[in-house]
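Data availability (excerpt). The following record was deposited with the supplementary files.
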Amino acid sequence: MFGLGMPELIIILVIILIVFGAGKLPEIGGAIGKGIRNFKKSSKEGEEEAEAKKLEDKK
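Predicted structure:
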C-alpha cells in the first residue's frame, strides 16, 4: 500500500488526531467514505455508458 508500513500509518493517524481533534474524526471519516462511494458510483456509471455505446456501435 504505497510502501507505507504500520509505523508510518500510526504516525499519520496521530498527526491527523492532533490537527483535527478527536471530535472531528467521525465527520472526516464519513466525508471520506461518501467521497469513495461517489467515486465508485460514477466510475461504474461511466463503464455502463461505455458498454452501452459499444453495443449501439455494433448495431
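Summary of structural features: The mean pLDDT is 85.
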